[in-house]
Amino acid sequence: MTVIAPSVLSADFAKLAMEAEEVRAAGAQWLHFDVMDGMFVPNISMGIPVLKSLRKATDMFLDVHLMIEKPLRYTRQFCAAGADLLCFHVESDTGENIAAAISLARELGKKTGVTLKPGTPLEALLPYIKDVDLVLVMTVEPGFGGQKFMTDQLDKVRRLREYINAQGLSCFIEVDGGIDENTAPLALEAGANVLVAGSAVFGKADRAAAIAALKAK
Ligand code: DX5
Ligand code: ZN
Predict the structure, then answer these.
(1) How many A from CA of 136 to the centre of ligand 2?
(2) How far is the CA of 36 from the centre of ligand 2 (A)?
(3) 166 is in which domain, residue-wise?
C-alpha cells in the first residue's frame, strides 16, 4: 500500500484544520510536518505550538520531519505536542545523540525515522535502521518546498529497498521533495512506499484530483 503524506509546509497556515480535513477526505493517510530552525537548513517554518494545534484539529498520522540542529534537545516536546512519528537527520548531531533521540521517542511511545540530505551516503543511516520504522530519502535539498526532484537519488531508494528486503526489515521508505504525478511513479518503482508531496497537493485547487493523480500510475 502506498501512503500519501501531504506536506503542510505548502498549506494555508491560517486554515490548517480545513486543509487537513480536505486531504484526509481525499484519501491521504498521513500529514507531513516540516520543522526548520534556520540553522540546520536556511529557512524557518513552524514548531511545537503549531503541531499542538494541528494535533487537536485532526486524528491523521502526524509525520514530523525535524530539520533542526541537535534534535535531542526538543524530542520530548515534539512527542508531547502530538507527533506520531519523529524523523531525525543523521547530519544534525553526533551518532550517539541521534541514537539517544530515537530511543527517547520510542520510550515515549512514538514511531521513529531517520533521514539524510542528498549529498550524504546511504551508509550513514544504516547504523540506525533496525531501530526505526521509517527511512526518508530526501529528493531535494531540505529547506524549501517547490524544488525540482533529484533523479539521482533514486539509486539510493533502490539500494535501500534491496537492503531492507535482504535484512527482512519492514520499515517504510519515504521520499520527500519534488514529488508530483510524473516523479511519484519513479519513486514507487524504485521501492518507496510513502510519498510526501507539498506543492503537488496543497498547491492545487482540487486536492482530491491532486492526490488521485499521485496514486494513478
Ligand atoms: C523540504 C521539505 C519538504 C517539502 C516538500 O525541505 O522537507 O517536505 O514540503 O515540498 P514539495 O513537495 O513542494 O517539493
Ligand atoms: Zn519534509
Answers:
(1) 9
(2) 9
(3) 3-215
**Total structural domains in the chain?**
1
CA 168 → CA 22, 114, 130, 164, distances in Å?
Answer: 36, 18, 10, 6
**Of all helices (H) and strands (E), which one includes residue 215?**
helix 207-216
Check which CATH number belongs to the domain holding 195 and give it: 3.20.20.70
Task: For 69-108, write each residue's pLDDT tens digit.
Answer: 999 999 999 999 999 999 999 999 999 999 999 999 999 9
At 139-168, the pLDDT tens digits run 999 999 999 999 999 999 999 999 999 999
Question: Mean of the per-residue pLDDT values for the chain?
Answer: 97
Residue 147 Cβ < 6 Å to ligand 1 = yes
Is the CB of 134 inside a 6 Å radius of any atom of ligand 1? Answer: no
Say if ligand 1 is within 6 A of residue 176 CB: yes
Is residue 34 annotated as a catalytic residue, yes or no? yes
- DSSP class of residue 11 equals S
